[in-house]
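Risk register update: the risk of archive-format incompatibility is retired. Evidence:
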Amino acid sequence: MIQAAGILLTGAAAGAFGTLLGLGGGVFVVPVLVLAFRVPMHAAVGASLVAIVATSSAGASKNVALGLANMRLGLSLETMTVLGALCGGLLAPHLGARLLIALFAALLLAVSAMLWRSGPAQAEEGGSPLSGPGLLGGTYQDPASGKDVSYSVERLPAVLAASYGAGVVSALLGVGGGLVKVPALRLLSKVPMKAATATSNFMIGVTAATSAVLYLGRGDVPMPVVGPVVLGVLLGARAGLALSRALSDRATARIFAFVTLAMAAQMVRRALAG
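Archived output:
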């Protein structure tokens, strides 16, 4: 009973930060299940993927209604992400848990460093507003400042390649792909942070569902863990939506960098401990 309550609280925190940062919560759920509750890595990834579907379902509709989620851009990138997720799901059984943990930690460290360095200089800008939003760009009203923000999408081929990699990462690590797609949209395409996280949150449910089917078929989705996690995620997602409306792009980028750095440190310690 105590363990179930702890997993529920973990899901609530994951839902709040996952919705705020467009990560789906997997970046929080997987380390906590592995480190605190001793859930095997592959089972933790399976449970996390189901939780990510719940996070996306809870936040995507409101982000679309507010105009923050760019549906045209999201659907364009999602095709490559799903292909990557299928490849990653087939590859996952052939990789050991320790290797997955080490890969997870390395990815978190790289993302944290890039976002922390770029956030202050770029967080309040978006794309190339003088040229107009273009076919895949967008316009929205920033809930925090009340100002209209218009942005275009730069370096689309590079972001498509990153989206494929995000699908592979999602299937291997149970992180929904947002951990790759949000930095790619922010750093490569110069999409504003709020639009990047909202669009990622719109996409991650499809990506995670693709991988979750493969894990479910292998019996790597532990139902006693999934229930509390999903319930907590749905509760926490409401708080995440409120935070996303109140915070600036710069603050969101800094929180993203700090959280991923903290998670990387924990996973490095786990990988070294064996």
